[in-house]
Amino acid sequence: MAQEDRTSVSRRMFLRASGAAAGVVAATGLEGMLAARRAPAFAQGTRLHLLRWNDFIPACDVILRQQLLPEANKLLGADVQLETINANDLQPRITAAIQSGSGADIIMTLHNWPHLYKSGAVDVTDLADWQAKDQGGFYGQSEQAVKDGKSYLALPWSISGLLIAYRKSWFNDMGATAPPKTLEEYRQLGMKLKKKGHPVGQTLGHTFGDAPAWSYPLLWNFGAAERDRASKVVLDSRETVESVKWMTAFWKDACDEGGFAWDDTNNNRAFLAGEISATLNGASIYIAAKRGQEKIKDEKGEPMWRDIDHFPIPNGPAGSWGYHIPFSHMVMKYGKNQKLAKDFLRWLHGKETFQKWFEVAEGFSVGSTKHWEQSPMWGKLDDAMKLYRTAAQASRIVGYAGPPDAKASEVYSKYIVTDMYAKAAQGTAPDEAVKWATGELKRIYG
Amino acid sequence: MEKPIAGGSGSAAPLEVVLPRPGAQRAQPAAITRWLENEKLLAAVLLAPAVILLGLFIAYPFVMGVWLSLSNTSVGNVGEFVGVRNFVKAWHDSIFQTAFRNTFFYTFWATVFKLGLGMWLALLLNRNFRGKRIVRASMLLPFIVPTVLSTFAWRWMFDPTFSVLNWLLYRTGAITTKLPFLSDGVYGMWCAIAVNTWRGMPFFAITLLAGLQTINPDLHEAASLDGANGWQRFWRVTWPLLKPVTLVVVVFSVIQTFSDFQLIYVLTNGGPANSTHLLATYAYQVGVATGLLGEGAAISLFMLPVLFIVVWLQLRYLRRLEGA
């Protein structure tokens, strides 16, 4: 007993020690800064480099540069520099930065990229726990995208919901007064629209957003998947072949066949130019049409935004799933200002700051936590945008039904699922296309 | 000082020569000057900057690339030696096989067109006409403009929805439905060859023109007097004399075209569905975009034996020509 007394820690000692530790954290962390109403003792002008994509809502980059980052600079006593690049170039930049050990201090990541860059990421579990607690818990895919076991490799930032934007009047002309409920209805409607010169637009190209956001849910909606829960490759199934057959028919009957070469911007431009009648996309088409309503008009000379609405990917035989893209911020291990980076993220992801950015996004991005479904902003948005509020609820993530690990990220980065549909649409027999994709998956997953 | 020795004869002004005193000390040149008087050392010093630059930017990355290709290095993870596993994996990869075939196809046809059109242009520019200098200078523009910039312009012209070429062909009645320039693999490959030809033809033209300028016009005159027509003069007089410079320019072009990256990356990014990938772009996709550095390095090293053989054949042929 005496020996236990010497080695054991009493409750009083533990509470005293952890209270003191919390006090130290509070004094030096963000709360300390706010409480003391002065910037912490970072060296004046300490630079923090934040790398993000060129936002599809330009106003989001503007508010970051012109308002939020200057506020952060004052609060943190630092110099936060924002660099924005094409999202397709983010992965090469991350690879180069990690290998060379130098680059941006915080990099925005999409999908489940953090799993691929695990060894270069700082553990931000403390921040993630705080954010989840503060804002009502993360959406499933936001958490899965960044969590490895119990550790968070990046801090979830937002989700870009993807729904099918469509021209109401053109659908009406074909007798569709409401959006199609099933994929087969969508194909039939698309066939009529294509005959009238208004095809559906869908990319099957190597591009980061629209292509996987279509091809992965297409698998799931037919009851197919890359892997089962035991991570065994199960792509080679009757359900997958059926989904490929459907896509091949849909492509020929209803789609603009130039979509093989589209990136994430082509469908926006084609839709706003009146070349296509429907396309899976984030809210950027509607937002751009509304903000540019003086120039973007329909064939009757009316502002096009009034003729745009949205619907989710229609039901397949196994229901309807979406893939809404999770975004996060990763603090880089090679960075020399990791504490500053974490303090900055704590401020940026906080309710007060995020709200300002979130409102400017006008529904293109929803939060990574459920708190933002209750934002009064949704009440101010047009009816066509309201579906985006809860879109993120019905989402799976790449790698399903296995974990969204580094191998799933590799499958995504090689566009294997998208290419399976593209090959079939280009003429390969559906079962051959599925066999090819299964072979590629097995080489990666094992 | 010694009394100068008078030289010369008769009434010539005396030549004064001051001889050093025996035992007197000569001023020593600076140490560095002494070192540089050593020819071997001087050669080493003069070559050093070039060797250092080559070592840093060519040899070191090459050795690193070889090491990476023999390891399972991925982004952020130091790899272990795995032998030729990456090469075997690449060889059995269907996308690699497509990229491998594409690289030969692309290089062959682009070189043929560049040589043919470049030669034709060089022969035209070798004549005298008004504005010759301006035409020769402006002809170089496609080669001088940064590849990324010009390829972006071509990509716009081939755009799947807004192609100005499709618009033109449609308006002139040549087509009724748009051509899938970049959305079909075969079309995409030929578009890439066309852009590469447009870009590389001036290099051929200007180099062959320089070669043509060294040919004595008397030879053509003599051939004409002997009754040779234009083709015969070209084939019997011009072509044999132009062979060495043609070989050099073809080899340079083959090396650049075989390892081409930026044109394909900007124009098609290897799509649609990997059908226009070359070895360089596929190596980039695997190594840098996906982070599998070992596998990407192995894919890129498949270019080495091919290019090595091309250069070796060229040197051998040139030596034979010189011997003849």
Could you explain how this protein is built, in words?
The complex is a heterodimer of chains A (446) and B (324). By secondary structure, chain A is of the alpha/beta class. Chain A has 21 helices and 12 strands. The longest helix of chain A is centred in the first third of the chain and has 19 residues, at 58-76. In chain A, 52% of the residues are buried. Chain B has 2 domains: 15-69, no CATH class; 95-278 and 303-323, MetI-like fold (Orthogonal Bundle), CATH 1.10.3720. Chain B is built from 15 helices and no strands. The longest helix of chain B has 32 residues, at 94-125. Chain B is globular, with a radius of gyration of 30 Å.
CATH topology of the largest domain in chain B: MetI-like fold
What is the arithmetic mean of pLDDT of chain A?
90
**Helical content band of chain B:** 55-70%
Structural class of the helix and strand makeup of chain A? alpha/beta
CATH superfamily of the largest domain in chain B: MetI-like
Main sheet makeup of chain B: none
Major β-sheet profile of chain A:
6 strands, mixed
Number of helices of chain A: 21
Based on CA atoms alone, the radius of gyration of chain B comes out at 30 Å
| Count of spatially separate domains of chain B | 2
Amount of helix of chain A: 40-55%
Give the tags:
heterodimer, A: alpha/beta, 6-stranded mixed beta sheet, 4-stranded mixed beta sheet, 21 helices, 12 strands, globular, B: MetI-like fold, 2 domains, 15 helices, disordered N terminus
